[in-house]
């Protein structure tokens, strides 16, 4: 092109108000075709444009345009009020250019995160994978897979795109996320959007913000002790910056968390880590959304008490409001850190959401959770939450109970169901003071409530480890 022609082209663009592609209004990857927006909520649509550019965003469910201008940082955002109408809808974003997002649904949006058991897909091997894959045609379920990335500071965008649930897309998406979403979709008859941001082998520290880690000396010290591994990041906030921060403030109904195996070396710290992560995310989103997590399944970990102490840390996290825990020791595999029964994991997490988030109280949400004990002579009586309809054993006798006296020496114990309580004793312990259930890495207790959900491992004492185990 001759110089005079180029000058004429540039002059024409200036006179007509045209803009270069670098100045065109644009959107983050999480806002795109086929997305699900949270229904009946105020949702944020945001992006970038030329400073001062007027942006108009319109959702077809109400056709109410919302206007704003790109700020001095070339950023803009608007808030839209969504409805209950599932769609499909369009979202039109108009600035110097116009973007029309097609096939947008209004429904329930959940973030799925954690490490490999959340990341695990049908293609990696799950029970009945072929059958589940063939059946996975659900046009109203949508997936967004966040690509693995790390960053030293919070990023503006992620790698990924919304796709419709088909046998081909389901095959490579989080199996736990899919089974959760399918259950929610079928029970509520609404669209479901699932965002999977997980990374196998990652400790919880990488999923918290730098500010959250720095605000706690305990967490900061634990994070500083992390040693490099070959399969993923271990430095604080590395995954948060690249794989969580760019999703904020995309409106969520809640988050699912399946992680903990990479923190079994410091379970006492995890008792502070997981609540801190929940608060960190809720603060960032400015939304006290539901947060449901999976308790780690039994496995042959290195230390003698790594699993039960990490499981206990997860149990203690139930003190945080609007949380819930799916117990998995009965559907795990002590010889495989990646149990292949992902269907029941997803369904148990969905049970929590249906009961607690969506008010379907008839749906069982939890197995028995230890509440308190009372000494009765040479026996101890145990009381539980989530046992209103009574307790039961899957098998002739209850297993994996221990009892101890003041010498803190635990011995195998007999446990007997008495209505909604348990009575625990052992002949050799005349003056019992403490009971434990499932207190080993590979324990698979068989205590359930009448709803058929298993009890979490627990202990009535708070004694420290012996012999530094």
Task: Please describe the topology of this protein.
Layout: H1 3-16, E1 36-38, E2 42-48, E3 54-59, E4 66-69, E5 75-81, E6 89-94, E7 98-114, H2 116-119, H3 129-134, E8 138-145, E9 162-165, H4 167-170, H5 175-188, E10 192-198, H6 210-214, H7 217-224, H8 238-244, E11 254-258, H9 267-285, E12 290-294, H10 306-316, E13 323-326, H11 343-357, E14 369-376, E15 379-385, E16 391-393, E17 401-404, E18 410-412, E19 414-418, E20 421-425, E21 434-437, E22 447-449, E23 458-459
Could you give a short description of this structure?
The chain has 469 residues and is an alpha/beta fold.
Describe the structure.
Helices cover 23% and strands 27% of the residues. Helix 5 crosses helix 11 (343-357) and helix 9 runs parallel beside helix 10. The strands form five sheets. Strands 1, 3, 4, 6, 7, 8, 9, 10, 11, 12 and 13 form an eleven-stranded mixed sheet that branches. Strands 14-15-20-19 form a four-stranded antiparallel sheet, with no helix packed on it. It is an alpha/beta fold. It has three domains: 20-104, Sandwich (Immunoglobulin-like); 107-357, Rossmann fold; 370-459, no CATH class. It has eleven helices and 23 strands. It has helices at residues 3-16, 116-119, 129-134, 167-170, 175-188, 210-214, 217-224, 238-244, 267-285, 306-316, 343-357; strands at 36-38, 42-48, 54-59, 66-69, 75-81, 89-94, 98-114, 138-145, 162-165, 192-198, 254-258, 290-294, 323-326, 369-376, 379-385, 391-393, 401-404, 410-412, 414-418, 421-425, 434-437, 447-449, 458-459. The relative contact order is 0.10. Residues 1-22 have low confidence and may be disordered. Strand 6 and strand 7 form a beta hairpin.
